[in-house]
Every structure is written in structure tokens, then in C-alpha cells.
Amino acid sequence: MPAYSDSVSIGAAGPVPVECVLQRRPLTRAEADEVVAQIRRSPKITGYSRSEWRGRRDTFALVRRDGGELVGALLVHHLVGGWAEIAVVFVLEEHRGRGYGRQLLAGALDMMADTRKRLLLFYSEGSPMGALARDHGFGIHADEDAFVRGMPGRRIFLKYVYKFQWLCSFYRIREMRRKRRELDCTFDFKVAFLHTEGIKK
Ligand SMILES: CC(C)(COP(=O)(O)OP(=O)(O)OC[C@H]1O[C@@H](n2cnc3c(N)ncnc32)[C@H](O)[C@@H]1OP(=O)(O)O)[C@@H](O)C(=O)NCCC(=O)NCCS
Question: How many separate domains does the chain show?
Fold first, then answer.
């Protein structure tokens, strides 16, 4: 397996049956194809394009140490003003429920701990993501209005700057329309927030 300067070993302790390594790198073509195909079937995530997984965004790959098979991937969308969004935490369908999601989020947060970023993470009601985010120190807000209430800086950022940056993608607009039509998605997300200074090392 190639060595990456920015990588961390994820131990086999706890519920993870196989030792994995978390690499901060673009996904390979085959990995990106699989992740994009599975996300296209998911009603919980709007979607990021192949090229975003292949290097246009900050991406993390959780791979098995024996053989390098991808088990999960995480995508960070860096935004203006010191904000960033953990836009996707994704464990491939065949590997879910074995602790990889927890390991993926913990490892990526660890690598971002010194970046002084304000991190957003949106997730759907009923997803295991809520408990995962809370366990990693995120504050949870019922929706966008609750997140910005009484905080004009947050309101301007979220309602205008974030929306504009996020929607600057044909792929995302097309996927949202398709998923609303075909998968009955409502995209009612809860908002999780964490300042990286609060990450416990
Ligand atoms: C959310 C996701 C990343 C979790 O990854 P995972 O590897 O399946 O989760 P883990 O095995 O690490 O489990 C994390 C916690 O969630 C719980 N959990 C996992 N799957 C669950 C399920 N289907 N229902 C309820 N709880 C569940 C586990 O019990 C665990 O809690 P514990 O550590 O206190 O026991 C994965 O399910 C996924 O990729 N889902 C689709 C994409 C998505 O919705 N991403 C989130 C928004 S970006």
C-alpha cells in the first residue's frame, strides 16, 4: 500500500474487526465511481460529483491495511471565513455497523484539530450520524433556523454565503431535483456544529 504523509493508523481495538488506515488523499477513479454510485442511491445525502472526490475537495479514505480496500470516505468542503463543512461521512453499504463510521469521523477530526475551523455537519433525522456527531463534541441544532437564532453572523453566513458556495455545482442541483422526484427526499437536515479548537486530542 502506498505511504501517505498525512495518514493515521486506526487500531483494531473496539468494534473494528480489521485494522484500517485513514489517508488524506483524493479517491482513485474506481473508489470514486463506487462511492458516487452508492450515494446516488442514498436518500440521506445530496451528493458530490466524481471530480470532487477525485481531488477538487479535501477527502479522506479509510482503507483496510491488508489489501487497501476502501471501506469508507469523508469529504470536507472548505468555505470562506474559516468555515468548513464535513459534507459527507460515508461507509460503503457492505461495511456498515462495524465501527468504521466512528473511526472515520474521529480520524478526520483528529487531522483537522489544528486548523481553527468552524465545522458544520448536516444530517437527516434517524441517521446514526446524530449520535456520532454528539459523541465527538458537536453541538446539535434542530434545523438551520435554530442554529442561526440570535446570531446575525451565522445567519448571514449560512443563508447567503454558504448557500451560494454550496449550490455552485450543477451536479448537486441536478441530484437534488432527481432525488426529490425519485427518492421522495425532503432534505430536512439537522445542523451539527463544532469549532476545531474544541477537539479533544
Ligand atoms: C452514518 C454512517 C457513516 C455510520 O457508519 P457505520 O460504520 O455504519 O457506523 P458505526 O458502525 O461506526 O456505528 C456508529 C454508531 O451508530 C450506531 N449505528 C450504526 N448503524 C446504525 C443504524 N442503522 N441504526 C441505529 N444506530 C446505528 C452504532 O450502534 C454506533 O453506536 P455505538 O458506537 O455507540 O455502538 C453510515 O451508516 C453511512 O455511511 N450511512 C449513509 C450515509 C450517511 O447517512 N451519512 C451521514 C450524513 S453525511
Answer: 1
